[in-house]
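Notes taken during the Thursday session

The instructor put the following on the board and asked us to keep it in front of us for the whole hour. The protein is Transposase Tn5 dimerisation domain-containing protein. We were told not to look anything up and to reason only from what is written here. First, the residues (106 in total):
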Amino acid sequence: MRATALFAVIAWRILYATLLARIDTDLSCEVLLQPVEWQALYCHTHRTTQLPKHTPSLQQTVLWIAMLGGYLNRKHDRPPGPTVMWRGFLVLHEVTKMYRLFRQNK
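Then, after some discussion, the predicted structure tokens were revealed:
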């Protein structure tokens, strides 16, 4: 019963991210991700330690998360779906943990 409740919350977050990014392309990614999550995602995706001056859009961060999950982002590919987003969120969780670990001394 507890596992089902936990998985329902996780599934809701993944579906919410996927659909919200398709509906409103100009939303800030902070409606879904904590600042440390999007910062870790940005640094990992761009292979840099410099953060952007502006918060990325939700659509862009969802694309980055999907690419972590194996989405290829080719010209005629459909938008990323829940399976790819699930895999991407698993990788994002690990990336965020490492980002926090490396940033704790700063």
